Amino acid sequence: MLNIFKGGYKIIKEKIADLKISTKIMLFYFVLLIFSFALSSVLYQKIYSNIMSQKVSDVSIQTLYSINANIVSMIENANNLSKVIVTSEDVQEPLRKLRNFSQLYKNSQGAPENLAAARNFADLDAQKKIYSHTAKFMEAFPFISSIYIFDENSQRFGVDKLPLSSLKISDLKEAEWYQQARLVNGGYILRMNAGGVFNNSSNENYISLIRIINDIYTQKTLGVLIINISENSFINSYRDIISKYDTNIVILDEKNNAIIGANDKKNESIGQLFQKPKEGEIGSDLERVKGVEYLVSHLNISRYGWRIISVMPFNELSKDSSIFSIIAFIIIAVNSLLLFIGTIFISRLITTPIKKLLNSMKGVEKGDFKKVDIQAGNDEIGKLRDGYNIMIGEIQNLIHKVVDEQKVKRKAELNVLQAQIKPHFLYNTFDAISSLALLGRNEDVFNVMRALGSYYRTSLSKGSEVITIGEEIEVVKNYLTIQKIRYGDIFSVEYEIDEAIIKNKILKLVLQPLVENALYHGIKHKGEKGLITVRALRGSEITILEVEDDGIGMSEEEIQQIFEIRNDSQKISFGLRGTIERLRIFYGVEDIFTIESKKGSGTKIRITIPAEGENENVQRLA
């Protein structure tokens, strides 16, 4: 395993070593950026999680305090209402009468008809007065679902928003809470569903505030007041508080029984969280149920012996702060992007001058020696630039020296070639004149001598190396005049000359050797009359010169010999080889001519030279 690791590390190291400097810098900063981004994200997440846990806990506790305040406020309102009811004469006076009638009934050992009638009247009067008195409170306090007043005989009076609930017991004194209600000395006690004394036909739970009604004058017991507050009234009092965070609330009594929120369907899956023991008056803990993290908070209401428990999904509580997390992530991402852009800028600041140096060096490989222009100070890059430019300057001086020496050498070679060409043509012409003289064709001898004189006047051109295209055509015409007299009617000539270039300057004695080659190596061996076509055409920034014949043509091997300028080629005209070499030296162009030829189909030689003004030799010698 260690060897594999070392081998992999070596391969990666070699790959990185082959990368460009700019790529290495960007790769280094990219790795640094990823590491920095990951570290920043982990640290931020850790700090954010701790802060959010504390914040969420504070929010949860604050929610419990708000719920506690609403519940206490509602119960205190019900308590204040109960004080008003039990001290009202509209309640005291009917209950007092009923108590007196009950006392009389007991003392009479029976109920005379007039006493029974009086009690019935008192019952109706009490029902009317108590109902009238309590009904207005039902409208003023909508959270109260019912107000029940019982006399000493458990006779019930009051109002209920639902159908009146019947008692399970015949006498309220038998209720488990009755003695406790008497012991609180005019205070109240709280029981869920009135301690179970009613037949509850609905599934709705309620909290009952129970108070003993005493005569305000004699302090004798007149009855019992029960004010019922529905569970939904409690829930509605804090619904807006918990709806924002999808919070589940349960209120447990002193016996750890759920008195509010017990029937909430949302609580079924997380019911176990409500039953776990809680330490302290207030606190919060994180619990996980089915992969979901919840914040479980509790608050004891010591006044009633109750405990409020809230269960909030942790992610719900953190939603409000998610915007800050997103902003922080964006800030980190933007900073990372700016760092990466800065890396690219620094990389280019260093590598761009180096790339210019490299490109200049590639130019050196191609023979293009140019100094590099780099915007740099007196730093390492600037010193490298200055050293490189000094080196290029020295190389350029050396090249110029070599070029000047080569120009002198080439000039000498050109003069030798021209010296070879002129005698070659002169020898052929003298041969023609000799033949005519032997044949006694004096007039032809005269015409040849005149054409020869005109030929040399034009070709010599007072020592100039360049002449006009028109003068070059005139040289060809004089030459062919001489050959026409010598060979008679074995060939004809056509001229295609662009008059727009007739005065353009070219190297002299270019077409004459080609025409000579066409005559001697093409037409002469044909055995019948041939045609020689001379063209001078204008191209795009070039001049095209062509000599075409319909002679015997050449094979591919013969054409290849011309291109290679082989010294052992006996079939190739010395004048043609000399002309090709002169053109190459003079114009400094290798691919200056083409040959199109096939055996038995003639030959076309094309010369393509720069137009006048495009060649420094033509400009200098013109």
Write the topology of this structure.
Blueprint: H1 2-18, H2 21-87, H3 89-107, H4 113-140, E1 144-151, E2 156-160, H5 178-183, E3 188-192, E4 206-214, E5 221-230, H6 231-243, E6 248-252, E7 258-260, H7 271-275, E8 282-289, E9 292-301, E10 306-313, H8 314-317, H9 322-365, H10 380-438, H11 442-460, E11 466-468, H12 469-487, E12 491-497, E13 505-507, H13 511-523, E14 530-538, E15 542-549, H14 556-564, H15 574-587, E16 593-597, E17 603-610, H16 616-621
Parallel strand pairs: 12-14
Antiparallel strand pairs: 1-2, 1-5, 3-4, 4-5, 6-7, 6-10, 8-9, 9-10, 11-13, 14-15, 15-17, 16-17
Question: What's the mean pLDDT score?
Answer: 78
With helices defined by DSSP (H or I, 4 residues minimum), what is the helix count? 16
**Helical content band:** 40-55%
How far the N terminus sits from the C terminus, by CA atoms, comes to 81 Å
- Rounded to an integer, what's the Rg over CA atoms? 62 Å
CATH superfamily grouping of the largest domain: PAS domain
According to CATH, the fold-level topology of the largest domain is Beta-Lactamase
Structural class designation:
alpha+beta
Spatial order of the strands in the main sheet? 2-1-5-4-3
Specify the biggest β-sheet: 5 strands, antiparallel
Low-confidence stretches: 566-571
Number of strands: 17
Overall tally of domains: 2
Can you put this structure into words, describing what you see?
The protein is α+β, with helices and mostly antiparallel strands and 622 residues long. The protein has 2 domains: 53-317, 2-Layer Sandwich (Beta-Lactamase), CATH 3.30.450; 400-621, Histidine kinase-like ATPase, C-terminal domain (Heat Shock Protein 90, 2-Layer Sandwich). Helix content is 55%, strand content 18%. The protein has 16 helices and 17 strands. The chain has helices spanning 2-18, 21-87, 89-107, 113-140, 178-183, 231-243, 271-275, 314-317, 322-365, 380-438, 442-460, 469-487, 511-523, 556-564, 574-587, 616-621, and strands at residues 144-151, 156-160, 188-192, 206-214, 221-230, 248-252, 258-260, 282-289, 292-301, 306-313, 466-468, 491-497, 505-507, 530-538, 542-549, 593-597, 603-610. A hairpin with a 2-residue loop joins strand 8 and strand 9. Helix 10 runs parallel beside helix 12 (469-487) and helix 10 packs antiparallel against helix 15 (574-587). The protein starts with a helix and ends with a helix. 28% of the residues are buried. The model is unreliable at 566-571 (pLDDT under 50).
